[in-house]
Amino acid sequence: MIKSDQPTKKLKWRVWINRLSSLDISDPKLALIMVIPTMLIILVFAIIPMLQGFYASFFQIESATLTMQFNGLENYQWLLKQSLFWESLWRSFLWVSTTSVVQLFLGIAVALILHQELKARNLARGLVLFPYLIPAVVISLTWRFILDPTLGIFNRVLMDIGILKEPVALLTNPKTALWFIIIAGIWKYTPFVVMMTLARLQVIPVELEEAAKLDGANAIQVFRYITLPWLMPVIIVTMLLRTIWTFRQYDIVYLFAFGGPLFATTTLPVLVKYLAFDAYQIGPAAATSTIMVIVMIAVSSIYFKFYNKAEERLN
Amino acid sequence: MKKNISVLLTLFLVFVLAACGSPATETAIEEPAVATEAAMEEPVEETGPRSITFFTTEADPPQLEILGVIIDEYNEMHPDVFIDVVTGTPATRGNRITTLLAAGADAGIFELEAAFTNDWAEAGFLLPLTDVFENIGGVDEYVPGSYFETDEVYGLPYATSVYGLWIRTDLFEEAGLDVPTNYAEVLAAAEALTNPAEGIYGISICGSRNCSVNLFSTMLWQQGGDYYTPQGELIFDSPEALAAVENWVALTKFSPPGFEGYSWGDQITAYVSGSAAMTVYAGRLGVRMPEQAPQLEAVSDIIQLPWNTGDGPYVTYGSWSRMAISAGTQYPETAKDFLQFLLSGDRLARYDATVIGHMVPPTKSVAAMLEGWDSDYANNHSDWLAFFNANAEFTNHPANNMGSVGSWGFEKNDYGPPWGGPIFSSGGILDIMFQSIYVDGVSAEDAHQEALGLMKEVQDEWLADHPDWTAPS
C-alpha cells in the first residue's frame, strides 16, 4: 500500500503544479494564491495580536498572574476620564501633524532641487538619504548628548559665542522637549518624502512640461498645473504612510526624554508602554491601543478619499 | 471561484475569532495548581537527554561567556543535560516570564521579577528550592534578606548592587571638608563644592525615570519614614516623610543643570566627566572609572549614604537578583541540580566577578573569594569590595517593601503593596511628585500633599476591586 501511495502523491503535486502553470497572470485564482502567504503573515503578526489587544481591553488583568476578569467598558470609561490620556492624544496630534506637514513641504522642495541637472547629483541624493538610514536609537542618544547642559556641544557653543550665560536644559523643560523631538523627527524622516517624490518626478512625461512651456507657461504654472497634479497621488500615499508610522512611533519619542519631563513628551504609544509595563494596568493600555487603531482607521479613510479624488483629477 | 473565496474568508474569520477567545483566565488559575501538586510529589529519577531553559538578562558578552564555560563544566559531568540559554532585557522580563508561567509552560530556570515575586509564589508558579538553599549553606551562609522565602525558599540570589556615596577625596581636601557623616554635613559639602564657573557641582543625583524615587527612598528610610506599614496602611503622610522630601530637594539644588532628566547612566557620566564632587551609585561606577576616568580612581572613595538626621536605621538602595524554577518544569531535579551548581562555590564567584563590585555575591564564602580575586580591580580596590560586601544586608527596594522600616529599625520583607504599580513606577505618582518640584517649581509640601491624595485614591480603588486582600503575615 505504501509503495503504491508514493506515485499517487507525486502525481497529485504534478497536477497542481501544471494547473498553477496554466493560470493566466490576470486569473483571480493566481492572485489569491499569491496573496495567501502575505495574508497569513499579517494574520499572525498583526491581526491576531490586534484582536487580542481589543479583547484584553474589556478585562481587568492582574500583571503578575495574568488572571482576567471581565469588566465591560470600564477600562474605556476610566481612560476617557484621565487628563493624561487627552494630553497624550493632543501631543500625538501635535507630533504627527507638525512633523508630517514640515516633512511634506521640505521633502518636495528637496526632491525638486535634486530632480534638476546638478553637479554631483547622485552624491547629493545619497547624502540626503543618510538621516533615514540611521537607527532611531542612535539619533536619540546623539541628540541627547548634543543637548546635554553639562557635556553637550550645543550649550558649549552658545556659551562660547556669548548667546547663553549659563547652560539650559532643553530636554528637561516641558515647553521645549517635544519640539526638539519634532525637529529630530523631521530631520530623520524627510528623506522618505524626498525619495517617494523623486521617484514620481522621474515618471512625469517630459513632453507635457515641454508643451506647457511652449504655450508660455512659467515655472510656477508648470509646477501648479503639470507637476503637482502628477505628484498628488504619491504625496497622499506618502502622507498616509508617514501619518500612520509617526502616530504609532515609539522609539525616537521615548528614547529622547522617556516620556518626560512631567509627561511632556508622552504620546499615545508612550502612554501604552507606561500603562502596560510601568503602571501594570494592562486593560487600560489595551483600551488605549484600540482607540489608536480607531483613530488611524478614521484618518486613513480620509486620506483614501483624497487619494481617489486626486486619481480622478489626473485621469 | 467566488464560492471558494467565501469559504476561505469564512475559515479566516473563524481562525481569527478562535484565536481571539484565548482562555487566559482559566489557564492562569488552573495550571499552577496542577504544577504545584506535581512539584510536591516524590522526586522521580530523571534520566536520558534533558533540556533546561535558562532565561537571563545578564547578557553582556563576558557574562554569557562565563555562563557558557560553567555550563560546559556541568555538561562534562552530565552529558545528557542541555542547558538552553535564552537572553532578554529587564524591561521585558516580567511580561515574558509571566506569560509563560500563566500559560503553564515550562519556563525552566529564570530570573525573578522583584515586583511579581510574592504573587508568583502565592499563585504556585514557583518550585520550592529550600533543599537547594540548605545544600548551599542555608541561613548561616546567605546574607540576611538575600533569598526569597515564604513557607519555602522560592528565590535563590546570585547578586545585588549596593548603593553608597561616591566622593572625590581631592576636592574635599582642597575645600578643607571632612568626609560627611550625616545629612547636615553632606548638604554643607554639596553647597561648598558647587562651582558652576568651573563646571563642578556638589552632587550628581538623577531626577527622572524613577531613579529619583529609588534613591530618595534611602533618605526617607534613614530619616525614620516609610511609605506603608506591614499591614498596608499609608504612612507617607508623616512629618518625617515630608521632611525627607524637603531634604532631598534641598540636596538636588547642588546637582548639575539638567539633572531633572538624568537617568542612572547620566548620573555617573556626570561623575566620571569630573562635573560632580559626589554621586549616589553602586559598584558599576567603580568599574567604569578605570575604563573612562582612571585619573579619578586614586581620588575617589565610597562611603555609606550619610542621610541620617537622628536615630533612623541604616538602609540603602539595592535589589537582590534571584533565580527561580518554574513549578511546571519538566525536569525539576535536574534544574535544581544545575542551579545549585551555578550558585555555589567558584562558579558563582566567576559569574559575579564579570562585573566585580557591582554584582555583590549573596553568600559569605563567595564574598570572601571575590575580596581576594585575582584582578586589577580587586588588587587596587579591595576596600571598595569589602564595603559592598559589608553593606549588602542593608539593601532595600521601595517597590518591594511594605513596612520594612519602622520604630524597630530595618527588617527587610519581600513584598510590596499590590496597588504599587502606579505609585512606584517610572512616571508614577512619586516620580511625578519629584518632577513637579524640579521642573514646575511646585513646593515640596504641595507636591507631597498632591502625591498623598493620589496614593490614597489608587489604594482605595485597588482595595475596592480586591475586598478579600489581606497583608502577607
Can you characterise this structure?
The complex is a heterodimer of chains A (315) and B (473). With 315 residues, chain A is mainly alpha-helical. Chain A has one domain (82-314): MetI-like fold (Orthogonal Bundle). Helix content of chain A is 76%, strand content 2%. In chain A, strands 1-2 form a two-stranded antiparallel ribbon. Chain A is globular. The N and C termini of chain A lie far apart (63 Å). The mean pLDDT of chain A is 89. Mean pLDDT of chain B is 87; it is low at 7-40. Helices cover 48% and strands 12% of the residues of chain B. In chain B, the strands form four sheets. In chain B, strands 2-1-3-11-5-4 form a six-stranded mixed beta sheet, covered by helices on one side. Chain B has helices spanning 2-20, 24-40, 61-77, 90-102, 117-122, 130-136, 138-141, 169-174, 183-193, 211-222, 239-252, 264-272, 284-292, 294-297, 332-342, 345-352, 364-371, 376-380, 382-391, 421-424, 429-438, 444-465; strands spanning 50-56, 81-87, 109-111, 148-149, 153-159, 164-168, 201-204, 276-281, 300-303, 316-317, 321-325, 395-396, 405-406, 409-410. Chain B contains 22 helices and 14 strands. The chains are: A mainly alpha (315), B alpha/beta (473). At the A-B interface, α2 and α12 of A face α1, α2, α4, α12 and α21 of B.
